[in-house]
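$ run holo --ligand "guanosine-5'-triphosphate" --emit tokens
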Amino acid sequence: VAIEAGILEKNDRIAARNRALLWAKGIATINLMSSPGAGKTALLEKTARVMGPEIEIAVIEGDQETERDAERMRAAGVRALQINTGAGCHLDAAMVGRALGTLEPRDGSLLLVENVGNLVCPALFDLGEQAKVVIASVTEGEDKPLKYPHIFRAADVLVLNKIDLLPHLELDADRLVGHAERVNPQLRVFRVSATRGDGIDAWCEWLRAQVERAAGKSTAHT
Ligand SMILES: Nc1nc2c(ncn2[C@@H]2O[C@H](COP(=O)(O)OP(=O)(O)OP(=O)(O)O)[C@@H](O)[C@H]2O)c(=O)[nH]1
Ligand SMILES: [Mg+2]
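-- output --
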């Protein structure tokens, strides 16, 4: 317990440094977390295609191995840096700090961080982000917010993805959202299909508000 507390304390210190740097530059940083395959990269690809022409976007990709997600994001037209965590199950603030040095996201840009696919560990590690987003897909079942409450509690936003599949499933989306809101009454919820495009306008509108908020932070610093 003492070792874990020490690791988290150190992580929080580095995260605070990342946050100060990002806010000084007016960069809106969003940490996206979900179980493997919920559609984080698909959502980012769609976001890049819709918002890329209007806002400078950079992406940090976290996976145990491969460069695949960074390659997908480059194909969607944005700059992307891949972090491989090896045996690690989450990104931490030091990894993101180092990635910032290499990627050098522009002042006033939108920085999207895709965490390693995992509903448990990423919830514990502050990266210095402005907002945390948890993505749940409709194929995962209604009970995930109850069984993995920490990540739903830590998040500012729930994106319920793959709603195009609902006609083929038993799942009751309202029950899933109700479970998430029971765990975290402050959650902002977007129901989307990252592949078909449903709900993407509202999601992008929220991201634009985050970019404006970050610009306000940078003005407050000067
Ligand atoms: N039908 C449907 N399929 C989707 C949707 N979003 C993603 N998928 C599919 O789900 C699979 C996984 O999507 P990814 O975007 O790779 O998921 P991920 O969360 O990035 O996965 P990891 O990075 O491995 O954790 C792919 O085959 C996608 O095409 C959606 O809205 N509807
Ligand atoms: Mg991915």
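-- notes --
The chain has eight helices and seven strands.
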